Amino acid sequence: MTLPLHPVSAVGALADALRRRVLSGEIAAGTPLPEQELSARYGVARPTVREALAVLVHEGLLKRERHRSAQVVEVTVTDLDDLMFVRRPLEDLMAGALAGRRVAEADAALTRMAALPGDAPWSDVVAEHMALHQALIVAVGSPRLERLYGMLAVETRLGLVRLREVYTDRNVLVAEHRELLDAIGRGPAPAARQAVAAHLEHGWGE
User: Fold this and answer.
1) Is the peptide bond before 188 cis (omega within 30 degrees of 0)?
2) How far is CA 160 from the centre of its chain?
3) End-to-end alpha carbon distance in the chain
4) Spatial distance between the Cα atoms of 59 and 140, rounded to a whole number of angstroms
5) Which DSSP letter does residue 31 get?
6) Is 72 helix (H, G, I), strand (E, B) or coil?
7) Quick one: which of 34, 107, 158, 183 has the fewest CB in 10 Å?
8) Per CATH, is 10-72 categorized as 3.40.50.2000?
9) pTM confidence score
10) DSSP code of 3?
11) Tens digits of residue pLDDT in 51-103
12) Domain of life, per the record (predicted)?
């Protein structure tokens, strides 16, 4: 049975457009997003803008204070250091649990990343990057590990925006993640854990 397709709402379309701009680094951290300017730029009513911004505030990509425009959340170097302090043991648990296994969903995300056109927005790279790491965590089969990792997703996504300047050649990013998945797939556990640790030490942690 084929389910009917529902058109994307104006709120959803605007939220998606703004999300892509944030995660591609086009809208820098701390940049205010005045409702009136967005309304004029996208040709939508201010209530639509307000709802779209509320979606991104709920996702943690934007923050909003009373009587001020919403703005992109800033993840500082200190934030990233603390993020990695928490991520390392979670990723280590994942590596030990999955050593010697291939995770089809992670391989699929890597394939999609490699197939992105050269002019694809960085937000598409971020999406597949997140999908790959999330697939590995989910494959462990621990709801608590998945829940803890999910709590870090927003800061991880925002942190990945910085990597667009490190990986000007996307093939390098793809190759590094292929090596990571191969190391986990080969095992044994100590080698897989070492590969994951080295992977997280590269750049700011990806």
Assistant:
1) yes
2) 6
3) 41
4) 25
5) -
6) strand
7) 34
8) no
9) 0.80
10) P
11) 999 999 988 889 888 888 899 988 888 988 899 999 999 999 999 999 999 99
12) Bacteria
The token pair at 74 is 């800033």
Q: How many residues does the chain have?
A: 206
Tell me how far apart the alpha carbons of residues 184 and 10 are, in angstroms, rounded to a whole number.
Answer: 42
Is the CB of residue 21 less than 8 Å from the CB of residue 27?
A: yes
In eight-state DSSP terms, residue 26 is: S
| CATH topology assigned to domain 77-201 | Four Helix Bundle (Hemerythrin (Met), subunit A) (1.20.120)
User: One-letter amino acid identity for 83?
Assistant: L
Sheet containing 62-63: give its strands across: 32-33, 70-72, 62-63
Tell me, rounded to whole angstroms, the distance of Cα 60 from its chain centroid: 12
The tokens describing 125, both together, are 């790279």
Q: Where are the domains of the chain?
A: 10-72, 77-201
